[in-house]
Amino acid sequence: MDGKRSCSLCGGAMMIMMMMMMISHMTSALEVPLDSKVLEGLPQPPTITNQSPKDYIIDPRENINIFCEAKGKPHPSFSWTRNGTHFDVEKDPKVVMMPGTGNLVIDISGEKAEVYEGVYQCIARNEHGSAVSNNIVIRQSRSPLWSKEKNEPITVQRGTSLILQCRPPAGLPPPIIFWMDNNFQRLPQNSRVSQALNGDLYFSNVIMEDTRNDYICYARFPHTQTIQQKQPITVKVLDIEAMNDTVLAAFLNGSDFWGDSPSGERVPSFLHPPGMESTTMVLKGDTLELECIADGLPTPNISWTKVNGELPSGRFSFYSFQKTLKIKEVTEADGGDYRCIAKNRMGSSQHTITVVVRAAPFWISAPQNLILAPKETGNLTCDVDGNPKPTITWSVNGNPIESSHNDPSRKVSDGVITLSDVQTGSSAVYQCNASNDYGYLLANAFVSVLAEPPRVLTSLNHEYSVISNSRALLDCASFGSPLPKITWFKDSQSILNSDLYHIHKNGTLEINVAQPQNSGKYTCIASNNLGNKENHVHLQVKEPTRIIRQPEYKEVQRNSIAVFECKVKHDPTLIPSMIWLKDNGELPDDPRFEVGSDSLTIHDVTEDDEGTYTCIRNTTLDQDSASATLTVVEQPDPPTDLELTDQRERSVRLTWTPGDEHNSPIKLFLIQYEDSLHEPGVWLNMTEVSGTSTTAQLELSPYVYYSFRVLALNGVGLSESSDPSRQYRTNPAKPDVNPSDVEVSGTSPDTMTISWRELSGLESNGPGLQYKVSWRMKDAEQWTTVTLANVSQHVVTGTPTFTLYEVTVQAVNDYGEGPRPEVVLGYSGENSPTVAPENVKVSVQSGTEAEVHWEAVPLSSVRGRLKGYKVTYQKMRSLHKQDYDRENPQVLIFSGEETVGRLPDLHPYSHYRLNIRAFNGHGDGPSSTDQQFQTPEGVPGPPTNVNIRNLNLDSLLVEWTPPLEDNGHLTGYLLKYQPINTTEEAGLLKEVLLPANETSYTLDKLTHSTHYKFFLNAMTETGSGPAVTKEAFTEVDEAMTNRQAEIATQGWFIGLMCAIALLILVLLIVCFIKRNKGGKYPVKEKEDAHQDPEIQPMKEDDGTFGEYSDTEDHKPLKGSRTPSNGTVKKDDSDDSLVDYGEGGDGQFNEDGSFIGQYSGKKEKDTAEGNESSEAPSPVNAMNSFV
């Protein structure tokens, strides 16, 4: 709420407030609002709203503008004093006061600005009082020239300290000092050379490079934007120890020699401030600057501490290479002792600075404008503090209160003025002045005596909207004198202070935690003894905006796509906007960044896209945000700086420097090698080490020319390979290993082949690599040996068939033999078996399966490793067809030493033969004697070429051919058929048995226009074979269909149907009329004649009830239910509106109910049936139109 429109409200009940208004009482300050409608006709003493600063430094090249603006009713007039006396503006043509304000414009062209220097004060007055401004001190800015001086060259011994003084001219405000050379380049500063706060240049110790002739001090005056230059200073640094007297005298001629200071290494001492202790004063709220500059060699380092305390956290900083300590916004707690310590390797020194904190006057509570009703009492309070304690003086309308007229209602007590039982017309402006040695404060506060009824300043029916669970503030800004009391209501219920509600002194209603049920209309009433005023405001509590699908951390590869989601749930009446930030700044202006309705998509991601992305979804009332980080990953850069160390005969250490891992940690390093002696240009994997390693101990082989390279692997992939290392050669040696994969095999009955895997060049260990091959029969004593080179096998001839041998293969080179080889066992070549299996028997299991048995052959006849038996069987002919078209033989292999086998997939009713032979690795042995067997009959295959044709409207012809596979003697065919409707519901299934010689069958007396389904099976003695399914339709009777269509389109038929419909409508209307007139239908008359429907005569032929019984067969309607015995109960067949869902209990009286003309139900009471029913019915409704 605007502070200029706020007011304080008195508490208490209305009755208490009115009673206190009748007597003198205390009241709070009230400021007159700036609302123009409120100000109309409302008096107000002057109030200063704008004024120039107390210390006003002017530029002599520009006009002087002194500001003084004020408000009041009526609008105030303005006057000025200068140096304590009246300043007659109208008499000075150079001075103009701006209309409507007290602002002065002083034209100083052609005049000296010094003429208008002085202390100015503005007075704003109207008929209700006078307000005064601060004392405004006008001073002209000055930038005087440097006094002329001649700077003698300074000669100084190397290692001593030096101070170059600047001593700039005094300016207003003080100038800014800096040191430069002749080329206008700032002189370099460091911990050894630095500029002090007073502008002097300090050298803790000088070096030979400090010799130069252009040390120039500059002073910049900010108001006039001018720079003044001191004459250059020349510094010569001498190394006296290296000079003789003649040379030294020449250097010292005409120079100031700084030779008193020590030049060698020494303990630090302080150049500024001197000594061990000093004191400084600072004002509260200002910035404290403490400085320590030390002499010493080596250059000392400066550190700071506070004695008996800590440096103020967050408010201190160091400058000028730790030589200056700055503390901003000084408080009383910053007073005390500060210690600076200068230290080098020779020792340390310290200096203690005592800081004294003083304070110019500052407000604790400035006096506030006071509006009182007549007879009220109020206080003006001027509460200030400072160090030393400020002196408070009061003035009224700009005059000391002591010299003003005596007012018995006013009492002054130091910083408080009490006004009692004020009267209309006693308005005035009071000034409080608080001052001490370091400044002053001046405040105006008016007292206005008014009698005003309440006014509510908050706009009528203002709409407030807040988010659920947040604080709601409903304004009721008011004005009145006496102060109005504010009362709040919601839905006519009074609101009092509670855990939920709090009414502030300014009338604002606070709802601590607003909920949807707090929405609605609120009324505030402002009242005092002069009246009351009410206002209505409305509150809407809305759902909060929440991001329900937040962006998530993304780790993507360069040139890929990154998508951040940001889906929000919000109040339907609030439309959220979406803002994306990157690292708390705007997104790059790049078309690769695509902002969707609920997402951010970054195309072709680059390394520059890394960062934190924040989604902000905000409405006019609230916002929610969520952030996620994008990390761009790539393959690592290749390692660099490969180096070989710790070189030995069989090992070397390889070290490298990892490349950039590109945000994906390196998992491992792959080390590869090239053998330029044996396989130049071929790089092979050697070993892997963890991604945290940068070195590896490599095991080497003799007689290899190694080069190494390293690749890095991270989550993205392998890096490029590093540059190769320098070549490292190992010396030759005898082989370390023998050939592997030694095998013995027989390729023919009298040979044996010995094979092995040759050694690689890396395994050869030296030149002249050969293989020493040895063999002998198992358990024999003598070895046969040959030595071979560049081969991987050797064939031994003249070996006996399938004999066990021992074999060894050893590597040798020019430097010796390899290790002792292992003995490998193997057999010489095999030959075919010599004996056939005997006692072969066949056991037929079914028409398609048989089992065969045999005896195993003797192992001595195998002449090798027995691999198994081959069973060869062949269908010779079919027993039914008596044909001799033989099928190709089939072979089944049974491994190992099995002597039983199953023959699957045989043809039923067929003749077979079979034989068996053993086999080994060389080939097959002789076959056994052929065995004959037959399979029994089986079920036949399906009939073929099944076809169905229409013969006429009610006949179908089914045709087929016999099965391709009879599998026995056919005994006939089974034909089954049934009708099916459009919903695939099947009718009664009928069967027909047909003889084996039939290949067609005609079905008569079928229903025309009907869909039928057929099933046809062939049969043998064993059973039925698989069925063939077909579907067909009988023909449609088009003549009947056409006749029906023709009748339906004839004009006479259409006219007849219309006449029948009209006649039915007339009959219904007549029935309605007679029912409402109490008449009876013919049916009713018959009911009267036969009071008991149970004894009415039944027709003899069909058993129906007289003339109004149904003449149709007793068939249930679709959806009706009948008893299980097929009879229909009389009650269940009654035609009643209840049966069709039109009635409640199904009973109408007999004098007019619809049911009465059809029903055969027995009435409960005859007399009851003679009464007319007046219950609402469709008939009654119809009668209203007759």
Whole-angstrom Rg: 61 Å
The major sheet is characterized as: 6 strands, mixed
Mean pLDDT: 84
- Unreliable stretches covering 5 or more consecutive residues: 1-32, 1079-1186
How much of the polypeptide forms β-strand, as a percent range? 35-45%
Structural class: mainly beta
What is the general shape? flat
Q: Report helical residue fraction.
A: under 10%
Description of the structure:
The longest helix has 26 residues. By secondary structure, the protein is mainly beta. The strands form 24 sheets. Strands 2, 5, 6, 9, 10 and 11 form a 6-stranded mixed β-sheet that branches. 7% of the residues lie in helices and 43% in strands. A hairpin with a 2-residue loop joins strand 81 and strand 82. The chain is built from 11 helices and 87 strands.
Keywords:
1186 residues; differentiation; mainly beta; six-stranded mixed β-sheet
